[in-house]
From TrEMBL:
Organism ancestry: Bacteria, Bacillati, Actinomycetota, Actinomycetes, Propionibacteriales
Designated name of the protein: RNA polymerase sigma-70 factor (ECF subfamily)
Classification via InterPro entries: ECF_Sigma-70_Domain (IPR052704), NTF2-like_dom_sf (IPR032710), RNA_pol_sigma-70_dom (IPR014284), RNA_pol_sigma70_r2 (IPR007627), RNA_pol_sigma70_r4_t2 (IPR013249), RNA_pol_sigma_r2 (IPR013325), RNA_pol_sigma_r3/r4-like (IPR013324), WH-like_DNA-bd_sf (IPR036388)
Domain RNA polymerase sigma-70 region, residue spans: 10-71
Residues annotated as transmembrane: none
Length: 294
């Protein structure tokens, strides 16, 4: 194969490789770097029978190294300034296009809680239909053990609601109405979903200057919610400790979560959790079925 033919064949695989790498890493820039590194390694390798499979394996191994290094060197905690600046600085059209392509930020958050080998097994098998026999050498397990990794990851991703399905549906309806109203900056719509004596509490980690840690009463809470409407554009529904809540996670990096209590169709209180220790203690899962990429 000539250099031009190799380049053409690689470019034909690029979008698939970036899709795999993005789901494994949750970062568009890191996904691009992983695919570029695979291209460099391809230039030093000869005699490849199945280019697509070879490239996917190489990209996955690169991503596995990145995931393992994250466990060794955790990222710095997010500051209140980061919370304010994140939508303006970190979002790009490419990021949003990849997120919208069958991957939610909530899913990326949950995937980030998995061990590296679990994430590899789940993403490759459940999202890209790669057989366990092909995944096993990458994670250095037997096919049977790899299947168990994916099963354990699947349970974490899907979660287990702690309330009956009817109650979960009610919670989803209420929290969805709240989120849509907040995203629209619609004060009247936010008021419509709040109980008169509603309480909002916010961790100090997420407080901007002059922001109160606790607000009481529908009017005050609604006004405080609308002020943060720009930030809410990045929020998505998720299971938080087994009930419907919200997560705010640009590029899959969890910045805060919101838990709710409600009665009938009104929210009686909500808590904005941003303290790293509290966030680490939450049980997070997705609400929607996971799409499998064929």
């Amino acid at each position: 194969m000539t250099r031009d033919e190799l380049t053409e064949a690689f470019e034909a695989e690029r979008s698939k490789l970036e899709a795999v790498a993005f789901r494994l890493l949750g970062s568009h820039s890191e996904a691009e770097d992983a695919v570029q590194e695979a291209w460099i390694r391809l230039g030093r390798t000869e005699g490849i029978d199945n280019l697509g499979a070879w490239l996917r394996t190489v990209v996955t191994r690169i991503c596995l190294d990145v995931l393992r290094s994250r466990k060794v060197r955790p990222e710095d905690a997010t500051t209140p300034d980061d919370l304010e600046q994140t939508p303006a600085i970190r979002r790009t059209p490419e990021d949003e296009a990849l997120v919208a392509d069958s991957v939610s930020r909530a899913l990326l958050v949950v995937l980030d809680t998995l061990e590296p080998a679990e994430r590899i097994a789940f993403v490759l098998h459940d999202m890209f239909a790669v057989p366990f026999a092909q995944i096993a050498p990458i994670v250095e397990r037997t096919p049977v053990a790899t299947k168990k990794l994916a099963s354990r990851a699947r349970q974490r991703v899907q979660g287990a609601p702690v309330v009956p399905s009817a109650e979960l549906a009610r919670q989803r309806r209420v929290v969805s109405a709240f989120l849509h109203a907040a995203q629209a900056g619609d004060l009247a719509a936010v008021l419509a979903v709040l109980a008169p004596d509603v309480v909002r509490r916010v961790d100090a980690t997420a407080l901007a200057p002059g922001m109160s840690a606790e607000l009481r009463g529908a009017q005050a809470v609604a006004e405080g919610t609308v002020v943060l409407s720009g930030r809410s554009q990045l929020a998505e529904l998720a299971l938080v400790n087994g009930e419907v809540g919200l997560v705010l996670a640009p590029q899959g990096r969890l910045l805060l979560a919101i838990t709710f209590t409600s009665e009938a169709d009104r929210i009686t209180s909500y808590d904005v959790v941003a303290d790293p220790d509290r966030l680490a203690g939450l049980r997070l899962a997705v609400l929607s079925p996971i799409s499998v990429v064929r």
